[in-house]
Amino acid sequence: MKVYEINEKVLKYRFGNPIKTDAVLMEGLEIKKSKIDYFEVIEGNTVIFKYKMSLEDIILGLGENLRGINKRGGIYESFCTDNPRHTPDVKSLYGAHNFIIIDGREKFGIFVDYPSKVVFDIGFTNRDYLQIEVSDNNFDFYIIKGDSSKEIVKTFLKLIGQSYVPPKWAFGFQQSRWSYKTADEIEEIAKKFIENDIPCDAIYLDIDYMEDFKDFTVSKERFPNFKKFVEDMRTKGFRLIPIIDAGVKIEEGYDIYEEGIEKGLFCTDEKGNPFVGAVWPGRVHFPDFLNPVARKWFGLKYKKLVDFGIEGFWNDMNEPAIFYSDRGLDKAIKKAEESESKNLDIYTFFDLRDEFINLSNNIDDYKSFYHKIDGKIVNHYKVHNLYGYNMTRAAAEGLEEISPNKRFLLFSRASYIGMHRYAGIWTGDNYSWWEHLLLNIKMMPSINMCGFLYSGADTGGFGGNANAELIIRWSQFSVFTPLFRNHSALGTRNQEPFAFDENTTKILRNIIRLRYALIPYIYSEFMKAVKDGGVYFSPLVFEYDDDISRRVEDQLLVGESIMVAPIYQENSKWRYVWLPEDMLLWKVRDYTDRNFEIINKGHNYINVELDEIPIFIRKDKMIIIGKHGKNVESIKNTKLDVLAFIENKCLYVYYDDDGKTCDYKDGKYDEIHIYIEKVKDDFKIEIDNRGNKDVKLINFYIVSTNGKIIKKKVEIN
């Protein structure tokens, strides 16, 4: 074992000769140290780290995974897995995010930089012990020290690099379904958004836009004159976002397939032949994204769609998902033939059934193909969690070469820490279950802690059938997630904002309009989190360290000023809310209303009608409100409203930039510093405009802690 000091807070313990993941950007200097802090280490075929937890310890992190914000009591496997049925006993989802924080008697973070399976047993087998098992002897193990969870996260985010930033229009509402199969269907969806006066920025193209499910193709039958269609949709205010899958169809005459074969850019089997799996098109080969040559080749193929005017993509099926392999299919068919005419008892029937159930995403298949990494042949299982990461890295690097300095919308289903620098994520194929709404709420801060700031769930649920109430309540939470996309599966009920009754359409219209009005605040807070190396969503414990706040699982802080407490139970109009301090409650039906109520610190039971969104403004904080429009680009926020809850004083920095380029990385952005101070029975306001040329007037609604509302207007020079 070698030990490296990254800085005074971070040590890296290197076991063996790890495969380079590019998750961490800092190397550090080797130091003399023989023992790992905090842990008992047991080395064998695997390496086990054991830590005795105290009663007060909470365990945060693990990004996109099951259970609560506090992971204590669960067992989790870090292994990118295509499994839409996220029941409580599931151990792994689409992302592999090996970062946790121990917050209690001792405070420190752990990052296990290993690209295959890692098991985190956090008090499941033995309630007093955290046990981490790495399934190999070659990996990096980081320990990050700090005085608080918030500080540890900031240190970790600095270690792994700045998060991806999408274009500003990607903060608008987005509509998706598997599938809007033709140009006519998409035209009809767009028409209904316009007729119902509901803002929307993007409509998605799922797999049926392709010709026979082949990447980088467009069906001429279903989408004739695609370039003009893209232009026409942009004129109406909508961008089209096509899906790209990991598998390349095996078909003579298909240029992507033939180029990949000719140049040897696909993953291979043990004999060196291109590995054959099956997904949407049937039999496919998988590009070897861990090979830089293959990565560049595939990434530049996005130009085929960029040339049509496409400005955003979602990468799917990139764990990679495998429906079946020839090996598995032959084995299952042979089992069925052997079972023919037999009297199958419970065990022999289960054996037969399991052969077919286990065809998909079979571990034996993942162990049956190989990558070329730095001239060496490496079994896929050893690097499984890097596949989706590097597919999306290929896309990001390709798009940067195709259109330098232009921001594209890009997000992925599978991910590993490090991919956050290239794209966002969505939380995968969920269900229209109330339990998945709650899981979405709990998952967001954990995902942010791992660097993925641009994220969100399939609002309303992908699988299953959502009723109007679930769509409303889920949308009321998704108002605050950077990615706000309604997405549903083939064969399920349509769940667009206009797909239900008239009153539901009205409520959803107001929810989506609120989202657009909040974009000045949401974008400002998102970009400050990126720029300053922080998070956009955080648990209460990041700001309040009382015993109750440490355990709250269903309330989140959004940026620096807002606390949200969504309704996530069916038929509920009330909910319990813990307030660690007095806060200003704004129940929003229509964002132009200004009805406030001060809620006192402590235990509260509040009424929230179906058409209301409870927004809590923290003490000595303010939020920025703009106007809605048909899409983000149509909004010209020359006037802004500030809603503030002031006891003493408050400084808010309103951030903005061009929303299109990466110039923000070079310091090309503007800020308005807004300062409010209570002076006797009045409030003093100071404005320091640092380059903003759009905002001309700010209307202030300032609520004092005694409930008095002061309204003021300030012109901006």
Automatic annotation (TrEMBL):
Organism of origin: Caminicella sporogenes DSM 14501
Glycoside hydrolase family 31 N-terminal domain segment(s): 44-121
Family as reported in the entry's similarity comment: Belongs to the glycosyl hydrolase 31 family.
Keywords noted in UniProt: Glycosidase, Hydrolase
InterPro entries for this protein: Gal_mutarotase_sf_dom, GH, Glyco_hydro_31_AS, Glyco_hydro_31_C, Glyco_hydro_31_N_dom, Glyco_hydro_31_TIM
Protein name according to UniProt: Alpha-glucosidase
GO biological process: carbohydrate metabolic process
An example molecular function term from Gene Ontology annotations: carbohydrate binding
Boundaries of every Glycosyl hydrolase family 31 C-terminal domain copy: 536-623
